[in-house]
Each structure stands twice: as C-alpha cells, then as structure tokens.
Design a protein that fits this description.
By secondary structure, the protein is mainly α. The chain has one domain. The protein contains three helices and no strands. The longest helix is centred in the first third of the chain and has 15 residues. This is 21543_t:CDS:1.
Length: about 50
Amino acid sequence: TYYGSYIVAYAYKEFKNSESRLRFYDLIKVRKFKDISELKRRRQPKTPPFY
C-alpha cells in the first residue's frame, strides 16, 4: 500500500544514518533479520529481551 511504502522509505532514510541504525531495527520487527545477535550485542543490557 502507499502508506506502507512511505514507512519503508522513511525507515530506509533512517537506516542510511549510521546513528539511527538501531532505530531502524526497532521500526521493523527484529525477527526478520538474521543478525539478531549483533543487535543484542549493540543494545544495552537494560532493555528487556522482547524477541
């Protein structure tokens, strides 16, 4: 849909920012990515595991 494509475009723009890469992972469900371990390594241990 148009709204979904807009969200994807915004997420991709955020992904280009190396700083907002974690936010990009948060926008889309993390289960789709294979490098969940890398995301867990970068995350702070304070955040509860919601996988």
